[in-house]
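Hi U.,

Before I forget, here's the chain from the pilot set. I'm dumping it here mostly so it's searchable later in email.
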Amino acid sequence: MLDKLHIITTGGTIDKIYFDALSDYKIGDPVIDDLLRVMNVGFVYDVVPLMRKDSLEITDKDRDDIFAAVTASDSAHILITHGTDTMVHTAQRLQEISNKCIVLTGALQPAAFKSTDAIFNIGCAIGALQVAGDGVWIAMNGQVFNSAHVRKNRAKNRFEAL
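Structure:
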């Protein structure tokens, strides 16, 4: 059961939007608050938009900022939305945090797309937060991975256990 869910957003594909035919995708406002309201979730949560970056642009300093935000939270349950390319690096940076269940998730297709995996991944992550023990986990592709034993398989466009 969730006492209170603290959500930290960092950007990534999950929050990407498309402007027009001449533009690239841009990272927009975090979508998770709107998604959770539509799903009518039965728990208390707050959303802190920490940054709006593609995960390939996240630096070690940014990971330190994420670490600080997680440790400063009074919640035992932390959900982090993150781009998939460097999600594992950020998860590994957080592994020394104790007494919290931290789950990172994201999307391989923007939440704004009709055929997105964002909603499924967020639901899986919220389920994981309710049953997984303390530690750092990654919820992607319908699975929950220990962050120390996972990688993104770019060729298959999914995460897999090591």
